[in-house]
């Protein structure tokens, strides 16, 4: 009787883990494959190729704020980096960066993380259990 009870408990635990894992994978898929809508906000980064000071950072921030679709701007003169949020339904980040380089008087390039850096930043891979689930997600080919 004890063994039958243990088997039932193990079946319930296994079924629960399977359902939760499938739910997690489905959630990650839905969140990462969301279509662009007018309320979605994205973030982009410009690596400025010359040294800038606080005045330059203010000029760059002001220029970026004047661009259509730009929501918020942060420009750090210590790192020569400008980060801005924008509405991808209204404007493309590459267009903003292109106009920045052509008309602002500063040279820069849009920073795009590679696949390895993208995986580092994924909050799913925070611990051992999450890494295991993340590895399963990566192997499921129909989600890619």
Which SSEs are present, and which pair or pack?
Elements: H1 2-32, E1 42-48, H2 54-65, E2 70-76, E3 81-86, H3 93-103, E4 108-110, H4 115-120, H5 128-139
Antiparallel strand pairs: 1-3, 1-4, 2-3
Write up what this structure looks like:
The chain has 5 helices and 4 strands; from the N terminus they run H-E-H-E-E-H-E-H-H. Strand 2 (70-76) and strand 3 form a beta hairpin. Helix content is 50%, strand content 16%.
How does the helix and strand content classify structurally? alpha+beta
- Helix and strand pattern: HEHEEHEHH
Overall pLDDT metric: 84
Rounded Rg: 23 Å
**Count of DSSP-assigned helices:** 5
The amount of beta strand, in percent, is 15-25%
What is the end-to-end distance? 46 Å
Helix content: 40-55%
List how many beta strands DSSP finds. 4
Spans of at least 5 consecutive residues with low confidence: none
Features:
about 140 residues, elongated, alpha+beta, 4-stranded antiparallel beta sheet
Summarize the structure.
The protein is of the alpha+beta class and 144 residues long.
